[in-house]
């Protein structure tokens, strides 16, 4: 037996409540603007790593926000618009394949996260005159950001702000990879988004690598 619509609605409402626990307790201790940060694209062989920082309002009540990997593309696209419309502030950061090759994927991810935080903070400051009070990261700590921060393992499934950031980052990166597919049609970037699928490896075998490939990820075949 599947769930009834009412049961599903109830489950989503409970999930929304649960996923706001971190934000709620931080606000209760005086952190007015809580930001969630996440990244997408640490594993692919091509393209950038993209990060997002999202500050949601206290009364954010949109159902269905979850770790972007658990959502269908259609659902992510729909939520992307709603999140950006309702967010108090947001920012997107990216680190391209050249930076990833130069300083490694973890360090490049941190650079991109810092960029996303700075952009979100600028928007927040323009709107409210205030800065970010606390940042929730998905399994990450960034030493050169002075704002108080918490690192949550599997944060994109535990914190609404991080889940919202994961959706913004994922949709942004996916759209970019679909555009790259127009430029480099031999690698199926539109479907694999730069991950190492059979079609992607076949493209590399036939055509070699593109200017957006991460050479440090392809040492065994270059």
Output the number of helix runs: 9
Strand content: 5-15%
Contiguous uncertain segments of 5+ residues: none
- How many whole angstroms does the radius of gyration measure? 18 Å
Query: Number of domains in the coordinates?
Result: 1
Overall pLDDT score: 96
Fold and architecture overview:
The chain has one domain (5-174): Ribonuclease H-like superfamily/Ribonuclease H (Nucleotidyltransferase, domain 5), CATH 3.30.420. The protein is built from nine helices and five strands. It has a five-stranded mixed β-sheet. Helix 4 (97-103) crosses helix 5 (105-128). The protein is of the alpha/beta class. It starts with a helix and ends in a 15-residue tail after the last helix. 49% of the residues lie in helices and 14% in strands.
TL;DR of this structure?
The protein is of the alpha/beta class.
Keywords:
49% helix, 5 strands, 222 residues, alpha/beta
Question: Can you lay out the helices and strands and say which pair or pack?
Answer:
Layout: H1 5-18, H2 21-28, E1 34-40, E2 49-55, H3 73-86, E3 89-95, H4 97-103, H5 105-128, E4 134-138, E5 149-152, H6 155-158, H7 160-183, H8 189-192, H9 198-207
Helix pairs in contact: 3-7, 4-5
């Amino acid at each position: 037996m599947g769930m009834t619509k009412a049961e599903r609605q109830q489950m989503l409402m409970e999930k929304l409540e649960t996923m706001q626990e971190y934000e709620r307790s931080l606000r209760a201790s005086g952190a007015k603007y809580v930001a969630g940060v996440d990244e997408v694209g640490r594993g692919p062989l091509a393209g950038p790593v993209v990060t997002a920082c999202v500050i949601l309002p206290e009364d954010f009540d949109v159902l269905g926000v979850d770790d972007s990997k658990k959502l269908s593309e259609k659902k992510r696209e729909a939520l992307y618009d709603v999140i950006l419309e309702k967010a108090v502030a947001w920012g997107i950061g990216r680190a391209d394949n050249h930076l990833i090759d130069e300083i490694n994927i973890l360090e490049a991810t941190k650079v991109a996260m810092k960029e996303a935080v700075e952009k979100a903070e600028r928007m927040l400051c323009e709107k409210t005159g205030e800065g970010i009070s606390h940042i929730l990261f998905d399994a990450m700590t960034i030493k050169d950001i002075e704002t108080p921060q918490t690192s949550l393992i599997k944060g994109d499934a535990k914190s609404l702000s991080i889940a919202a950031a994961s959706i913004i980052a994922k949709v942004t990166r996916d759209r970019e990879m679909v555009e790259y597919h127009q430029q480099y049609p031999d690698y199926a970037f539109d479907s694999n988004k730069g991950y190492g699928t059979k079609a992607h490896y076949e493209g590399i075998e036939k055509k070699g690598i593109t200017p957006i490939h991460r050479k440090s990820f392809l040492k065994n075949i270059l």
